[in-house]
User: Which sequence fits this backbone?
């Protein structure tokens, strides 16, 4: 399926940007800081000293697990060492409860000063519509936020209707993850440069299912928001039209072929049922880690988490 080409397109043209966004409010000052691990954070602070010993206190929230929290808190500690007049209070939540917690906090007018989100998501949009997300343009124009080290393409990912609402602190893409031990058991060779087509992948699935005694692949087709975008691009189409009256830019054949493939795989037991896939909770609980499948598509940044949880070789192919 020429995943290498698809992933490059995804990085340059179809990327969802994770952002740290300044919360709207009264008089504020914003500074841009880059941590030791290369992530960028935007600190929005009250102009009045409101913390301990006259220090400014800001609150910062994100989603993720303990490992991510430990790394983020190390970056926050470094930031406070370099900015001793600022105290940062941190909090994090699992993804499935993150936006609920922020929504409750916003209702009580107690939303964190800085928080992680996805530009373009419905959850983030509700905060924009409510006027509680602070545009960052004036801070960039005044020099309080230095955008000189960020590419224009990345800056554009944080803009909505011409206004800058967030700064990307990282980019990600999807990669195919395979289990070499199961491929070997099935007598199959791993395509190191990726499958040339969906049909080529489908041809291997029955043998992989036999080798696992369970399923062949995780239901990565369930991630329609990402995988369907790739599929559309393979057909020379896209999910949404860049301009014009049409809201969509893919054909009926593309839609029917993609979801027909999903239904076929499910009907033949090549992928787990929907309820089984939905019950998975993180890499440790994933079917490829438990040896129940041999193929998955994951965020490339999550490879180490899957590999460590599996305690066996897992390989990414493009």
Assistant:
């Amino acid at each position: 399926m020429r995943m290498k080409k698809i992933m490059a397109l995804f990085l340059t043209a179809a990327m969802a940007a994770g952002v740290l966004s300044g919360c709207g409010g009264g008089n504020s000052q914003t500074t841009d800081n880059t941590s030791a691990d290369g992530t960028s954070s935007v600190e929005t602070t009250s102009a009045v000293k409101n913390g301990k010993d006259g220090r400014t206190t800001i609150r910062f929230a994100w989603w993720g697990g303990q490992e991510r929290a430990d790394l983020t808190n190390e970056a926050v500690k470094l930031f406070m060492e370099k900015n001793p007049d600022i105290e940062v209070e941190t909090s994090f939540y699992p993804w499935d409860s993150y936006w609920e917690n922020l929504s409750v906090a916003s209702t009580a007018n107690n939303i964190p000063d800085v928080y992680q989100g996805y530009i373009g998501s419905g959850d983030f949009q509700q905060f924009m519509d409510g006027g509680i997300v602070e545009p960052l343009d004036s801070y960039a124009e005044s020099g309080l936020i230095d955008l000189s080290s960020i590419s224009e393409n990345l800056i554009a990912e944080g803009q909505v209707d011409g206004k800058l609402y967030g700064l990307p602190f990282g980019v990600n893409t999807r990669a195919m993850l395979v289990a070499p031990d199961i491929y070997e058991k099935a007598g199959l060779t791993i395509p190191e440069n990726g499958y040339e087509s969906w049909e080529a992948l489908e041809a291997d699935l029955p043998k992989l299912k036999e080798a696992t005694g369970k399923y062949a692949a995780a239901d990565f087709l369930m991630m329609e928001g990402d995988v369907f975008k790739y599929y559309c691009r393979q057909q020379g189409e896209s999910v949404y039209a860049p301009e014009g009256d049409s809201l969509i830019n893919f054909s009926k054949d593309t839609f029917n072929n993609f979801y027909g493939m999903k239904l076929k795989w499910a009907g033949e037991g090549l992928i787990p049922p929907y309820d089984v896939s939905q019950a998975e909770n993180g890499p440790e609980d994933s079917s490829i880690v438990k040896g129940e499948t041999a193929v998955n598509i994951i965020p490339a940044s999550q490879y180490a988490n899957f590999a460590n949880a599996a305690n066996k070789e897992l390989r990414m192919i493009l």
Observations:
- Residues 1-20, 24-49 have pLDDT under 50 and may be disordered.
- The longest strand covers residues 56-63.
